[in-house]
# Entry
Amino acid sequence: MRYLSTRGGMLPKTFTEILLGGLAPDGGLAMPESYPKISPAELESWRSLDYPSLAFEILSRFMDDIPADDLRTLITRTYTDEIFGSEEVTPVQTLESNLHLLHLSNGPTLAFKDIAMQFLGNLFEYVLAKNNDELNILGATSGDTGSSAEYAMRGKRGIRVFMLSPYGKMSAFQTAQMFSLQDNNIFNIAIEGVFDDCQDIVKTVSNDQVFKQKYRIGAVNSINWARIAAQIIYYFKAYFAVTRSNGEAVSFSVPSGNFGNIFAGHVARMMGLPIKQLILATNENDVLNEFFRTGLYRPRTTTETKQTSSPSMDISKASNFERFIFDLTGRDAARIKELWKLVDQGGSFDLSDTDLWKKIRDFGIISGTSNHAERITTIRKIHHKFNILIDTHTADGLKVGMELREPDVPLICLETALPVKFADSIQEAVGFVPEQPDGYDNLEKLPQRFERMTADAEQVKRFIAHQVGPSNQMHG
Ligand SMILES: *Cc1c(COP(=O)(O)O)cnc(C)c1O
# Structure
């Protein structure tokens, strides 16, 4: 399997060659040259596989330059009962006939990002050791991504994480989750400012090519192809859980932000999984809903981006969306270059009067949006009807999914975080706070380890240089 750029300016590369890079050199995103097609017979033979075996079947098709035995080891080390709370890893719960909840949030940080990130941690460690290299991950977070990355990379050889977060602006639970880590390869940097200040510092440091090269600076953002690939697995797993034969189709509803999760569903569908609809749900930040309803893609400015009670979906533009449009154009890199020239200049594009818009139905994605009042009502209703608690993001997905589903097609709603992470909204909806899962009850009382800094990229650079510096190198 070779990888190309959505903008056509990258020579074909292998999986491990694109693994540690961010954007392609031409500013595009890496894409497999084609999607592996799964025949009906193969699909049938996958039905009885456990999670690690199914993961191997899928990932080995995308990561074919990793020796099969090594890949199998990385997978079996990642997808365990111990890390994900059950051997099923992503169990499906049936709420009523044709309505199911796919639990994706039983990893260490209680959000779905763990599923891909835990694998990425093992994969990075393996590839870095093989190349006798090291990586210093620099990121900015306002919550889920940062903690998921830290829990995936903690204690990994050859990797350090420098994670910037806005001082005093994350929830107590999220802060405790990150700052209580005592591993000496994890560095929490609390910036006196807001999330955008953190992100600006990351950009400034990453744009300094000399520094970036010298200190092996990298990222683990949602455009990483390995993260997409690892998210394809649970679409297959859930499909097998709710159907008896491959003649049946299902639909999924997906709370969406950067378009990573639902894009993995799109890939599963392109591979041959019988998915009828992929129902995309946004919150008040409805960039993607606007596109799928009207054909207009208009990324927002940061001041237009609202802070909501489903914060992990508060996006101004959707990083992985370019990959979908690449497929929509029939993989026309010249056209992507044209469209994203507009986007990169802060503009927008409108496909409504084009040939492409006529084809969009073939891709099965439909969309809807939800707001704070609706997610609170959904949490309350679901609790009342099924006696379970869902978090705010999952509520957006359920709200839109129930609105748009076809009555006779089983709907699988993706649960993307546990309610305990968003206790205030749960309190508002049902009048009590969710129970802490086992092992988390003491979290907020643990000692915290972090550096506090002003919003100054030079100070962050000095800190990284000091930690990495020659006397501190991990390998010889
Ligand atoms: C990241 C995240 C999302 C959005 O997923 P994308 O892949 O960015 O679309 C939804 N819910 C939760 C809880 C998340 O952490």
